[in-house]
Amino acid sequence: MRKRAFDPIVDANTRLLILGSLPGEASLAVGQYYAHPRNAFWRLMGDLLDQPDLHERAYVDRLAALRARGVGLWDTVAEAERVGSLDAAIRLPVHADLPGLAAALPALKAVAFNGGKAAQLGRRILAGSAIPLIDLPSSSPAHAISLSAKAESWAILGDFLRD
């Protein structure tokens, strides 16, 4: 089954772009990034933004909190065949226009990859970019390390959230 990524969540103030691979089934079903209830993304971002209740807020409010701190979201895969939600099941990917998006973001300071597949693809797409590229452990529940270990790795993003 062919799956398509969402439109990027960015604006002219985006300083940090966080890229996943391709939205999972739960996210595609509701049209929201990181919608699986066990995905740690919103908890991790809540910690980084000093908003520990971020994951409990309405989706529109979560996005507003990200935008207010210069954080954008998108994916490395524009569309692909995939059964289920696992990155390992992605077949025949069409890459997202990451160079085009990066060029359109005047305040961009770094790109972070949420998970190994996003990093593998994103680094290839952005090869030669002068923008710092940061690999992070996946926020997905399929990546079975503790939330505290994920948070420790994700803490590096705080450097790009300061004004």
Structure in words:
With 163 residues, the chain is of the alpha/beta class. It has one domain (2-160): 3-Layer(aba) Sandwich (Uracil-DNA Glycosylase, subunit E). It has helices spanning 25-30, 41-48, 59-68, 98-103, 116-125, 147-154, and strands at residues 2-4, 16-20, 71-75, 77-81, 91-95, 110-114, 133-136. The longest helix has 10 residues, at 59-68.
List the helices and strands and how they pair.
Blueprint lengths: L1 E3 L11 E5 L4 H6 L10 H8 L10 H10 L2 E5 L1 E5 L9 E5 L2 H6 L6 E5 L1 H10 L7 E4 L10 H8 L9
Parallel strand pairs: 2-3, 2-6, 6-7
Antiparallel strand pairs: 1-4, 4-5
In short:
The protein is an alpha/beta fold and 163 residues long.
C-alpha Rg, in Å? Answer: 14 Å
Low-confidence stretches: none
Strand content: 15-25%
Number of domains: 1
Which labels suit this protein?
alpha/beta, single chain, Uracil-DNA Glycosylase, subunit E, 4-stranded parallel β-sheet, 6 helices, 163 residues, globular, 29% helix, 3-stranded antiparallel β-sheet, 20% strand
